[in-house]
Structure formats: structure tokens, C-alpha cells
Amino acid sequence: MTFRTLDDIGDVQGKAVLVREDLNVPMADGQVTDDTRLRATVATLAELADKGARVLVLAHFGRPKGVRSDANSLIHIVPALQAVLGRPVGFVADCAGAEAEAAVAALAPGSVTVLENTRFHAGEEANDPALVAAMARLGTFYVNDAFSAAHRAHASTEGLAHVLPAFAGRAMQAELEALEKALGNPEHPVAAVVGGAKVSTKLDVLTHLVTKVDHLIIGGGMANTFLAARGIDVGKSLCEHDLAPTAEAILEAADQAGCTVHLPYDALVATAFAANPPSLRVANVHEIAADEMILDLGPQATEALADVLKTCRTLVWNGPLGAFEIAPFDTATVALARSAAALTREQALISVAGGGDTVAALHHAGVADDFSYVSTAGGAFLEWMEGKVLPGVAALSAA
Q: In the annotation, is 198 catalytic?
């Protein structure tokens, strides 16, 4: 995929640059509780401001559905963004229209200004050409730095790339380059770890991955559905028995594509989902009692998967292997994540991970900083793993 970056933007001194960022951060009692997404904006916003641009930040916050509300105003995000940027950040109470145009015209070169929530306009989610044109009047260039919103064909994420010279910001560039190394044009052998509770939420991911990777490692509750499809009694485990034929079809497709699917052959089981329950034991998956549930991979399966990773050059990971929120059902996720991190540090493996639970699990294992790339995008990362075209990315490529 080809796209222009900030290296190609040329002279921006005194020019207004519209930068689409993701400022949709969690808040409690008026305070930002996780500034990860804000910190991701720093490279692009600082670089453009240092080059003398009048930086105009476009973003959404919440789901106001075209209706203005104080609760969804981006003015509440400005103090936290100012703190991570280490420079003043202004605010304009609209992202289109005459008042916004007048306010932008008065801004100084090198300034950073947040424009009001794009979703206060009904035309944002409808990708209305009239709103696109009104936003475009505010700037000379368009920079998309919000991969996490790139799966939406909205005015500020897709429409603007067709009417202004369009470029990828530094965070977007890093994401696209990492994803290209992971699945676009990876070094083989490639392993994918896919975990999570239900097969139904990741059918498209699994179907796509078996055609792309050499090893598919299935964990979490969804592994139980595959075990059941193979005729194994999984007791009281979380399992979508009605999807057994679908699971079997995925296994057959993997077979035809030459992809090895790894399912657990031993597991951590218990009769209750609680921290360190008295009934906790390691069991072969063929020996699960009727009142037991599989809550994590067993030690033998975990060790075998670590050996698989040693034979691979690329890893893409989405979803935990067990119910990692409660000990000791975090054991397999932590152990395999640490194995992947060690191989990455040795430069034996390119490791790319994404998805909310995945990021939390890698932080829990203490290895998030050791992976080659960890994406904070949720839906966009999942759609990329499904092989779907992301409108915001496609628009940059077309531009």
C-alpha cells in the first residue's frame, strides 16, 4: 500500500492543517482516566506545530448523534491534551461554518487548536459532501492520524482525503507499516494467536487468517467450541455448540490452506470461575468432568505453543488465551506473551498485537513495550484482521 506521510507534505509555515486524531478517551469525574490515545497524537501535532503550521485537530467524542451536548464537548479534553503535548492548546467551538472560519483565520503559526466534536454535525457520520466542503474550507492540507477510526467512512475520516491533499500522520504511518509487516507482506512462518470468549465474534477473522498464516493458535472460550466440534466433551465450559459445523468448516479450510491449527490438549479447569478455587486442576481435554469448565490452557499446551513461536518470524495476536482477569487463569496468556516478548527482544520475531483485551493482557504480563507494535485500535484492528478494506486507509492510498 502506498500513501503519503508528513515527509511529503512540504512547507506548512503559516498554513492551516486539518489533523484527524482520536481523542475519544475514557473520562470519570471530568478527568481523563487513560491518556494513551492522547500520547499517540504528540508526534504528529508537535512536528507540524514546530514547522509553523496552524494545527487544527478534528476528532469525535462519544455518540452525540448530531446533537450538541456539553457532556460530549471536546473542550473537556483540552487540558489533558495540553499536558501531554507540553504546549498551549486552543479550542474553537465548531469544526465547520463561518464562526469556525473566522476563529481559524485568527490563529498564529505554530499553534495547536482543537475543533469541536465532529459528531455534533449529523453530516459527519453520513459523510455528507456539504459538511466535507465546509470542513475543507478551514485548511490547506489534511492529515489522518487516527487509525482507530479508519474503519468508518465519515466526513472527517474519509471524505476530507478526497478534497484536500491528504497525508498519513506519524501514528497512522507507524500502524500501517506495522500491519504490513504482520499480514500484508510478512516474513514467514507467520503465527496468529486469536483468543476471546466467542467464535461468533471472530468468525471473519478466523476465516481470513487460515489463508494468511502458517500457524493459527486458538485460545479463550472460543477454543472450547473447536474442541466440541472435534467431539470432545467440554463439560460446563463456555461453548457455542450451535457453531460446531462452522468451526469444523474453518478447520477444513485451514487444512486445505496448509495452516496448522493449534488447540489445547491440556487445560486449567475448575467447577467454579473464581480466584484460585479449591477444585482447580490441570486436566487433559479428553478428561473434563461434566461439572468442570475450561478456564485456561494447561502447562503442556502453553510450553508447546512457546516452541511453535520459536519457529516463526512473525506473530499477530488478538485476544487472551484464558480468563486472564482472574488468577491463575492468566497463566497461559502471561507465559506465551513473555515468550513472544523475549523472541522480539532477540530480533527473532516481529510481534504485532491489538484489541482492547489484548492490550490489557500484555500490560498485565508486563511486556507491552517489548512487542514490535501494539495497536490501541479496537474495531479497526479487528476489521483489518478480517481482511476488510478500511475506508480511511483506502482514501489515503487513493490520495
A: yes
Architecture of domain 186-368: 3-Layer(aba) Sandwich (3.40)
Asked whether this chain's domains 6-171+391-398 and 186-368 adopt the same fold, the reply is yes
State how far the Cα of 219 lies from the Cα of 196, in Å rounded to an integer: 7
> Which of 62, 97, 110, 356 is an active site residue?
356
Where do the structural domains in the chain lie, given as residue ranges? 6-171+391-398, 186-368
Q: Which residue among the candidates 68, 198, 236, 281 is catalytic per the annotation?
A: 198
Class of domain 6-171+391-398: alpha beta
d(CA 355, CA 129) in angstroms, rounded, equals: 32
Q: Are 299 and 339 in contact (CB under 8 A)?
A: no
DSSP string spanning 317-331?
A: EES-SS-TTSTTTTH
Contact assessment for residue 228 and residue 234, using Cβ atoms and an 8 Å cutoff: yes
In tens digits, the chain (399 residues) has pLDDT values of 689 999 999 999 999 999 999 999 999 998 999 898 999 999 999 999 999 999 999 999 999 999 999 999 999 999 999 999 999 999 999 999 999 999 999 999 999 999 999 999 999 999 999 999 999 999 999 999 999 999 999 999 999 999 999 999 999 999 999 999 998 899 999 999 999 888 898 989 999 999 999 999 999 999 999 999 999 999 999 999 999 999 999 999 999 999 999 999 999 999 999 999 999 999 999 999 999 999 999 999 999 999 999 999 999 999 999 999 999 999 999 999 999 999 999 999 999 999 878 998 999 999 999 999 999 888 899 899 999 989 999 999 887
Active-site residue flag, 310: no
Reported as type and span, the H/E element at residue 144 is strand 141-144
Could you say which of 52, 62, 379, 387 is catalytic? 379
Cell numbers for 213: 498464516
Q: Which amino acid is at 105?
A: A
Residue 18's nearest CA partner among 174, 135, 132, 190 is: 135
- Provide the 3-class DSSP secondary structure of residue 301: helix
Active site residue 230: no
- Using DSSP's 3-state secondary structure scheme, residue 236 falls into coil
pTM for the structure as a whole: 0.90
* Contact indicator for 98, 62 with CB cutoff of 8 Å: no
